[in-house]
Specification:
The complex is a heterodimer of chains A (440) and B (448). By secondary structure, chain A is α+β, with helices and mostly antiparallel strands. Chain A is 40% helix and 18% strand. In chain A, strands 1-2-6-3-5-4 form a 6-stranded mixed sheet, with helices on both faces. A 5-stranded mixed sheet of chain A has the order 7-11-8-10-9, with helices on both faces. Chain B has 448 residues and is of the alpha+beta class. Helices cover 40% and strands 18% of the residues of chain B. Chain B is built from 16 helices and 12 strands. In chain B, helix 9 crosses helix 15. The chains are: A alpha+beta (440), B alpha+beta (448).
């Protein structure tokens, strides 16, 4: 029996093609599933000014066919073979992934290669207009027409100065989505979608002896592209509290508190994750115990960190009990946070939080889909795919002292942005000021 | 280099290997089913109980769910906070889910504390205490959650949709209950429900993961062997009667940026002879990305982020629901497109490539469903709840492969009779009312 103190050891091999494509191959024949994951090192933080939401809109277009793949074929071919697939866009990266029965590995590689190499000849204004409408409906469905749906983007807008790459949400604003042109699409593809800016991960049931040739066969003749100039992000040196409030059509208030925190590349990243879990990871966590059990002013409380490339964010989100106001709720949250910052955690709560984070990591490593995802993030955002094996032990080495030190450092009023979302239906409820579509 | 215009062929699909878990029955009747997977140091445990929402009457709606919520809130001599700290200190995850069909206690744990995780599971299942002050706290939380349903456009209508389709059948009341019934449940009712539904002879313990090579049964017997009590076997609720179509029901949500459209009727029970054909029909209509609904409303018209249909199979006939959230301005057009796809499904047999896509998606995906300990445990739970043997999935694949296009059409005629479907729209009544009225009678309801 493996014990949790022991090493996680997923063997993998790395390879680079002449055109610059990096490849990570991680064989695991225990289940007849194989994950093919392509990550492009471009996200919403790289969008040109006035084009918020473009990286994500572009991701949609990459499912609309390429030279040898028909307009609606990509999804059909993968689902018909028994596979699952999707794509996602975030601040730092865009990824495309399918998990298929192992007999469909070639199909998945061929599909990914075709759009990496030969997407431009088939893109049309009609496809752009259709997916622009779909994305605008995604914004309506997942953000505007959802309770508290505009909270996160409001926090970002107040936390970062104008022009900061992390200031706008990945989904973007309606007016910018409207501005996107076919020329933007072509320029963006040429700038960011060359093989040199991509990483291919294959994880799961494949023959390690033949995969390198297979990858060369499908991806090797994609022409290399000049590497793009990256956006510069200054390390976060913001030391001033920001505050905002938002009226939304909701029953009870909610308080968001975002703290600037270590990036995914920082040595303290794992500590920040354990700190988040200690604050609100479960029913025995600090905030849950104080606010839900003892004071009964919150219905729910959550805390999470975002693994970002250039900076980090630790979020604390508390939803009020019926009849409790945002000011009282914020006071309760703050009292718990400052107490932890002053006194540090108890040893058993630190070790429990640490165990919980490690257990959750195993849930991600268990499937080829989750493992390929972590390998890709680790390789692209940390430059180290081996993190897939070392993360478990890195979390294990986080102690109570580390958590106490980081809590004291991060949980200060000049390191936070606070948002109150309060019930109401008057005016342009919840509409961001920069969105025409938001007002009625 | 290769000719990129030639699409690679897929070879033979991997064989679907049936799970062969170990099975034992303890002397008190508790079934224990487990499968060892020692790849990573973790394990998934489940305790399955016939304590789902379909056994509650109209006056006690929500009881199964409130009992489940209270299980970890004080048990076996430990108070609620002490219990929470015990669980947190071990780093395990414990949650209890309640569907109409069953209650399931889920545990995920690092395997070095497997014994302690079983201790926790035994405490919450066998000896919850229902301390009055915890009951009141949880009741208030539940009432808050019911009130907050109005915030979500998809949630605000859930209760109403269930009632419109199922009327006073148990499926017409959501598992979480209604404010009135949740307020009136007494502590004694909760304790009596627990006594009568949580008993070893009707329970199944499921485990998958890094379990000891020998002695797992003994670990379970040590903690559950002395569990006593009797519980009657539960019978599924009666077959529901079809609803009368009521035109369009419009729930007014002023200022909505989209309308949430749901068209629902009664589908079928798990194990019904029509199940394979109905699953194929659902895949073609709205179950897959390239389904008719999604290709039409999203990929052709751009009216929505996604349109889909969901076939919910329960012990008795669950609903078939077709839904899309669409831009407010196209609400009536979208409703009529959805109706048109529904009628089309029953008017003609599907095309061959649609049949191939649906069968492929439903059967070739099966070998991928047993990869993680959570997936395996979930599948073993499914077998326990619906009485499926270990060869069920290979048989299921065969049944899907033999479904014919005319059978799919026949299923559509049976399940998608427009005179027995309810259409519910949640949106801005002022904006969408007039165009909906052009389609037929509209009944407007105020959102709760």
């Amino acid at each position: 029996m493996t014990t949790p103190g022991s090493h996680i050891d997923f063997e993998f091999e790395a390879l680079a093609l002449d055109n610059g494509l990096r490849v990570v191959m991680q064989p695991d024949r225990s289940s007849p599933a194989v994950a093919v994951h392509v990550m492009y090192h471009v996200g919403s933080k790289d969008e040109p000014s006035g084009r918020t939401g473009f990286a994500h809109l572009f991701e949609h277009l990459l499912f609309q066919g390429s030279a040898n793949v028909g307009e609606t074929e990509h999804f059909r071919l993968v689902q018909e073979s028994g596979g699952t697939l999707n794509g996602s866009t975030w601040f730092d990266r865009t990824n495309y992934f399918e998990t298929v029965p192992s007999n469909a590995l070639d199909l998945a590689l061929w599909l990914e290669a075709d759009r990496m190499g030969w997407f431009l000849p088939t893109i049309t204004q009609k496809k752009l207009d259709n997916q622009r409408d779909v994305v605008k409906n995604e914004r309506r469905q997942s953000y505007e027409n959802r309770p508290y749906g505009l909270a996160t983007e409001t926090v970002l807008r107040h936390a970062f100065p104008t022009g900061h790459p992390y200031r706008h949400p990945t989904i973007g604003y309606m007016e910018d989505l409207d501005r996107a042109t076919l020329d933007d699409v072509k320029t963006f593809f040429r700038q960011w979608y060359g093989p040199g800016n991509a990483l291919l991960v294959v994880s799961g049931d494949f023959d390690p002896a033949t995969l390198p040739d297979k990858v060369r066969r499908y991806f090797g003749d994609i022409p290399a592209a000049p590497s793009a100039a990256r956006v510069r992000v200054e390390p976060s040196s913001i030391r001033a509290e920001a505050r905002a409030s938002l009226v939304d059509d909701v029953t009870v208030p909610r308080v968001y508190m975002m703290f600037h925190a270590p990036s995914f590349q920082d040595d303290d990243f794992e500590t920040s994750g354990v700190l988040g879990s200690l604050l609100a990871g479960g029913r025995g966590s600090r905030l849950y115990r104080d606010l839900v059990y003892e004071r009964q002013i919150a219905a729910d409380v959550q805390a999470y960190v975002w693994p970002l490339e250039k900076l980090g964010m630790l979020w604390v989100v508390a939803t009020a009990r019926q009849g409790v106001g945002a000011v009282e709720l914020e006071g309760g949250v703050w009292e718990t946070l400052t107490k932890l910052a002053a006194e540090g955690p108890r040893e058993e709560e630190a070790s429990g939080a640490c165990r919980r984070v490690r257990r959750r990591l195993l849930l991600r490593l268990e499937s080829v889909t989750g493992r390929a995802d972590l390998l890709a993030h680790a390789a692209v955002l940390r430059g180290d795919p081996g993190y897939v094996n070392t993360a478990f032990d890195r979390y294990a080495s986080v102690g109570g002292d580390d958590i106490g030190r980081l809590a004291a450092d991060l949980l200060t009023s000049d390191n936070r942005t606070v948002l109150h979302v309060v019930p109401g239906t008057d005016g342009a409820s919840g509409a961001p000021e920069s969105s025409r579509e938001g007002s009625r | 280099m290769i000719d990129h215009s030639s699409r690679p062929t897929t070879g033979a699909a991997p064989a679907l290997v049936a799970l062969r878990p170990a099975r034992e029955c303890l002397p008190n009747g508790l079934d224990v089913v487990w499968l060892r997977r020692s790849r990573l140091p973790e394990a998934s445990l489940r305790l399955v109980l016939p304590a789902g929402a379909d056994v509650a009457g109209p006056e006690t709606a929500g009881i199964a769910s409130l009992v489940a919520k209270l299980l970890p809130e004080g048990a076996a001599g430990r108070g609620a906070r002490e219990m929470a700290e015990w669980i947190e200190g071990l780093g395990i995850n414990l949650r209890v889910s309640v569907s109409y069909d069953a209650a399931v206690i889920h545990v995920h744990t690092l395997s070095d504390v497997l014994a302690e995780a079983l201790d926790v599971l035994a405490a919450v299942a066998r000896e919850p205490e229902f301390v009055p002050e915890e009951v009141e706290r949880c009741r208030l939380q539940r009432l808050d959650a019911i009130r907050r349903m109005r915030d979500e456009p998809t949630e605000v209508s859930k209760d109403l949709l269930a009632e419109l389709v199922y009327d006073d059948h148990p499926y017409g009341r959501l598992p979480r209950g209604r404010a009135g019934t949740v307020e009136s449940l007494a502590v004694e009712d909760l304790m009596a429900f627990h006594r009568s539904r949580y008993a070893p002879a009707v329970a199944t313990m499921v485990a998958c993961g890094d379990l000891p090579a020998e002695g797992f049964k003994g670990m379970v017997a040590d903690r559950f062997g002395s569990w006593g009590g009797e519980a009657p076997a539960t019978t599924p609720p009666p077959a529901p009667e079809a609803p009368a179509a009521a035109g369009v029901v419009l729930v007014d949500r002023p200022g909505s940026r989209q309308s949430v459209i749901q068209i629902a009727g009664i589908g079928l029970a798990r194990g019904d002879a029509g199940e394979p054909a109905a699953r194929v029909m659902n895949a073609i209509l709205g179950g897959l990305f390239n389904s008719r609904l999604n290709l039409n409303l999203r990929e052709d018209k751009g009216w929505t982020y996604g349109a889909r249909s969901v076939l919910t199979l329960r012990r008795s006939a669950g609903p078939l629901t077709i839904r899309a959230a669409v831009e407010t301005g196209v609400t009536a057009d979208a409703v009529s497109e959805m109706w048109s796809e529904i009628r089309h499904m029953g008017a003609r047999a599907p095309e061959r490539d649609e049949m191939r896509m649906a069968a492929g998606a439903l059967t070739r995906s099966l070998p991928l469903k047993f990869e993680t300990t959570g997936q395996v445990a979930g599948s073993l739970v499914e077998q326990a709840v619906y009485g499926l043997d270990d060869d069920y999935w290979p048989r299921f694949a065969e049944a899907i492969e033999t479904v014919s296009a005319p059978e799919v059409q026949a299923e559509a005629v049976r399940r998608l009779d427009p005179s027995q479907l309810v259409t519910l729209v949640v949106g801005d009544a002022e904006a969408v009312g007039p165009s909906l009225e052009a389609l037929g009678p509209v009944q407007v309801r105020i959102a709760p």
